[in-house]
Structure formats: structure tokens, C-alpha cells
Design a protein that fits this description.
- By secondary structure, the protein is an alpha/beta fold.
- The chain has 13 helices and 7 strands.
- The strands form 2 sheets. Strands 3-2-1-4-5 form a 5-stranded mixed sheet. It has a two-stranded antiparallel sheet with strand order 6-7.
- β2 and β3 form a beta hairpin.
- α8 packs across α9, α9 runs antiparallel to α11 and α11 crosses α13.
Length: 351
């Protein structure tokens, strides 16, 4: 007995805070493009009324709204993709006449044609851990911003910082000096005091969040992999947490090439006919992880003899910056190996 196959409905959703633009295609034609309230339940109500027997396949672009929309749509029994906006096929006309209905329509058309691939959606727990780590990074940026304002206030008033305090590390003695340094007016002194209050509050809050971030590596789901990563020279506790929360599951990557493509430690390639040229590092990358791994690579060459020898060899034909990027890629291959196999890292082992 033949099993009846449900017809499919392809839906592109351009999500915004106040309203969504929704475009619906059947397998054969365009049904409708409309605006609705920014709520998955509103879409479900419409589909339940007019398409009760259809198999629903929908997509929207990854954005600041996270993955709650994806999870709600999945809970309705719909198939849903969260896509990278850069992977959406776009014509010149669509680029020059960009509107929400145009965006939702091209998403639905590409979805129907099978041209879209969804990004990895983390679990709720992992997403929360990511948010905690990223919040710490924002706090660090806030702290740097406040410190720069304090330095600017000294420059504006022609006050030179004593040489013993003129460095990136702010000691208690330096803060005490800032609290008593003479400024040309009462208002200037008030501004400095307010800035110091802001610095103290932000710094204490930053320390509190940092403790919570470091504690993540001791969670049951991260503990084993955290131990493996910490054995790699150059990988500290913060980078460990960042790797574990951003990657989540190393087995979602087919091979190292796929993993490296996600991180972005590879050059752009321009090949046509007999011409084959490699350029700068690819624009497609994980911004946080790539910069962290390049920073870790500087420590790795100091602690791993094999990496140091390789770095010295690279300096014979590359600049220091390009050489360290190659070291970062080798470091990434070691991270991939220990996470994939569960084997501890051996310092001085060359492969």
C-alpha cells in the first residue's frame, strides 16, 4: 500500500523587532508575501487555517534574535533552518532594491530550490554559556573604554602620568594617585572621581563574571575536553571555555578542513585557468576564535620546542605576522586532534 506524501510548503521569514515579512511558496508557485506580528504563533495560526496538511519547511537569517524562533518553530513540528546571510543567493536587482518582502521572497525561493544549508544551532545550555563568555568580553571592552577616558582626562588637563605608572597595568598605587592628583577645577575633579567610581564598579563586576566563566570548564559536559585542551601549550582557561562553548561538538565537523573553514585560518583562493593565486586570510571566519588562537600561538612558540623550530623556519621566507598565522593553524590542528580522538597532547611531538 502506497504511503501518501504530504505536499511541502517553503517559507522565508525576514525577522525584525516590530514585524516579520513572510513569503510562502508551494512546490509549484508563489502563494503569498505578507507582514505579521513578530511571533511564531501568529505564523502557526495562519498555516493551521490554510495549510493544515502541508509539510512546513521554513528558514530565517542568523541575527541578534538568537535561536528562540528556531526552537519555537521546531516545537510546532516544522522543519527550520537558520542560515548565514552571506550564503543566500542574491541577484544584482535584489541587491539594488532591497526590501523586507524581497528578502523573504529570495529566502523562500532558495529554500525551495534546495540551495540553503543551515548553521549549527546550539543547545539552550550551550547558548547560555556562550552568552556568559561573550558578556565577559564586552565587559572587558567597557573596562578599556573607561580607562581610556581617564587617560584622556589627564591629557586634557595637561597632567603627565608618572613614568612608573605609565603602562597597561593599573596598580592600586596608580589608582590612589588618580584619586588625589590635583586638577585645575572642581568640575574636572568631579569628573575624574565619577570616572574612577565607574572604573571600580566595572572592574569588580568584571572579576565576578570572570570567576563564573572560568568555572564553566569544570562543568560535567566540558570537564574531560577542558583537561585535554589545557595540556596544549598556549591554551589558557579562558580560551578553553571559548573553544568548548563555541564549538560545542567537534564531531559536527567532517574533517580538519571543515573545522578550519569554520575558524577561518586559511587564505582566500583565486583560481582561473592557468592562474592560481592565494591571497589574505578569508573574510569568512569566526571572529572571536580566530583572533584568540592567533594570540595563543605567540605563547605556543615559547612553550613548545617543535612549534618554536617551525616558527623560526617560517621566518626565513615569511613575515612574523604571516608565520604566526601558520603556527595558529598548526595549533588548531592539534586542538582538532585531541578533541576528536580524546588523546592527550604531547609537547614536542611533531606530525
Amino acid at each position: 500500500m502506497d504511503t501518501e506524501v504530504s505536499p511541502k510548503l517553503f517559507i522565508g521569514i525576514d525577522v525584525h523587532k516590530r514585524q516579520w515579512s513572510v513569503c510562502i511558496f508551494t512546490a509549484n508557485c508563489h502563494h503569498k508575501t505578507f507582514s505579521q506580528a513578530p511571533d511564531p504563533k501568529a505564523l502557526k495560526s495562519y498555516l493551521d487555517k490554510f495549510f493544515p496538511k502541508y509539510q512546513i519547511i521554513c528558514c530565517y537569517e542568523a541575527c541578534k534574535f538568537g535561536f528562540w524562533i528556531y526552537r519555537d518553530l521546531k516545537s510546532f513540528g516544522y522543519e527550520c533552518l537558520v542560515i548565514n546571510p552571506a550564503d543566500l543567493p542574491t541577484t544584482n536587482k535584489e541587491s539594488s532594491e532591497k526590501t523586507d518582502p524581497v528578502d523573504s521572497r529570495k529566502m523562500a525561493k532558495a529554500l525551495r530550490a534546495g540551495l540553503l544549508r543551515g548553521i549549527h544551532v546550539p543547545t539552550l545550555e550551550t547558548e547560555g554559556d556562550r552568552q556568559l563568555f561573550r558578556y565577559r568580553k564586552r565587559l572587558w571592552a567597557d573596562l578599556v573604554r573607561v580607562k581610556n577616558r581617564i587617560k584622556d582626562k589627564l591629557l586634557q588637563n595637561g597632567i603627565e602620568t608618572p613614568p612608573k605608572y605609565d603602562n597597561p597595568y593599573w596598580t592600586k598605587d596608580f589608582l590612589d594617585w588618580l584619586a588625589i592628583v590635583e586638577l585645575p577645577s572642581d568640575s574636572s575633579r568631579l569628573v575624574m572621581d565619577l570616572l574612577l567610581d565607574q572604573f571600580e564598579f566595572t572592574y569588580r563586576h568584571f572579576l565576578k563574571v570572570s570567576i563564573s566563566v572560568r568555572a564553566l570548564q569544570r562543568k560535567a559536559k566540558y570537564k574531560a575536553n577542558s583537561k585535554l585542551l589545557r595540556q596544549i601549550p598556549g591554551i589558557g582557561p579562558l580560551t578553553t571555555v571559548q573553544l568548548l562553548t563555541e564549538i560545542e561538538d567537534i564531531h559536527r565537523f567532517r574533517n580538519f578542513k571543515h573545522f578550519n573553514s569554520y575558524i577561518g585560518l586559511k587564505p582566500m583562493v583565486h583560481s582561473s585557468g592557468e592562474s592560481d593565486r592565494k591571497g589574505y586570510m578569508t573574510y569568512r571566519h569566526h571572529q572571536g576564535l580566530r583572533s584568540s588562537l592567533i594570540e595563543c600561538a605567540w605563547t605556543t612558540v615559547q612553550r613548545d620546542p617543535v612549534m618554536l623550530n617551525r616558527y623560526e623556519e617560517l621566518l626565513q621566507r615569511h613575515t612574523g605576522k604571516r608565520a604566526i598565522v601558520i603556527i595558529a593553524r598548526k595549533l588548531l590542528s592539534r586542538i582538532y586532534h585531541v578533541l576528536k580522538t580524546g588523546e592527550p597532547y604531547q609537547v614536542g611531538y611533531s606530525n
